[in-house]
Amino acid sequence: MPEANMEFLKREFFKYYYENLDQLVPPGPIKNREFGFFLDKSRGMLRHKCFINLDEFHNFVLNEVPLDIYVSAARYEDPSNRDMQEKKLISAELFFDIDAEPTVSESEESAWVCQNCGKYDLGTEDKCPVCNSPVERAEIVNENQLNEALKEVKKLVEVLRSDFGIDENHISVFFSGNRGYHVHVDQEEFINITAEGRREIVDYLLIQGFEEKRIMHLLKNRSFYSGDLKGIIGRIYRMILEAGGDKIPRNKRRILKQINEIIEEFKVKVDPVVTIDIHRLMRMPGSINSNSGMVKKRVRLQDLSSFNPLKDAVALGEGETVLRVKAVPRFNLGGKSFGPFKDEEVELPAYAAAYIICKGLGEYVRR
Ligand SMILES: [Zn+2]
């Protein structure tokens, strides 16, 4: 990343952290958590950091102004130990990651950069027209894609509540600051679950290994149906009965097709790898995501429907910033629409300039 870009980001990030330090509170107890940081883009993650109290952590953030901040979902006896076993796990929050799928249709909504020869343009190329290398697509998500991800979050919260019996007060939803949502669960019975147990939860959410013949069996012996079947099997069974009116569907192929459609609808599209990994570092709540310059923001359950990530998670200031832009598709941020831009010098609010810089599509010129 060019020096001028880095200086601009660090200046803006510092301003944000300095003014919003009270928002940057890791899950407790702080002395039992492992922290990770990206201090600049060229170096790897600084891991195994540990702080004895909040002040020490805040001083570190203000001094180093990290590009990204992570904290372990797990609590350890010795979090700064570099050996995972020697860290001595105490417990770990259940942690889910749901990402928006960037589906790009219009060429105006996408841009690409060739890492091999440096060529870039608006559009949806897969291969560089100059050197034929695969290109890197600009990762810009829009409201619709984020809304799809939010639907999955609502499904997840519903399953956690009704099928797992998790109390609402122990479910926290966050916008990740870029292209998805994180859901944390810290209810006592769930923080001691092993990796295998977490895998089973993921299988349940993704409806892996669902046995259609159990439904077939229920349909055949409808008299056994008591109306209080729990979980996925109950939901699928009831949907099939509802769809068939009062008649029990008999065509086997049609029922199987119906089951699969219902499974697609009920399946919660979480990232399995994230949930199963007990030692995972998760993006720190209240921290800036350097893939966008937006903040990882808590969304209260009652606000899930009204939350607007591209507005509510904007963290940086409005100060006019001049930027030399390579190619940036149209994007919405902070309630405004920007672009598309191609090979031009533009004046933008700092938060939009940071967004373009974070996506690697522009260079800071001046304030
Ligand atoms: Zn190329």
Describe this structure in words.
The structure is a single chain. The protein is an alpha+beta fold and 367 residues long. It folds into two domains: 211 residues, Alpha-Beta Complex (DNA primase, PRIM domain), CATH 3.90.920; 57 residues, no CATH class. It has ten helices and 20 strands. The strands form seven sheets. It has a four-stranded antiparallel sheet, with no helix packed on it. Strands 6-11-10-15 form a four-stranded antiparallel sheet. Strands 8-7-9 form a three-stranded antiparallel sheet, with no helix packed on it. Helix 6 crosses helix 7. The longest helix has 20 residues. The chain is globular, with a radius of gyration of 24 Å. The model has no long low-confidence stretch (mean pLDDT 91). Bound molecules: zinc ion. The site of zinc ion has 8 residues, from loops.
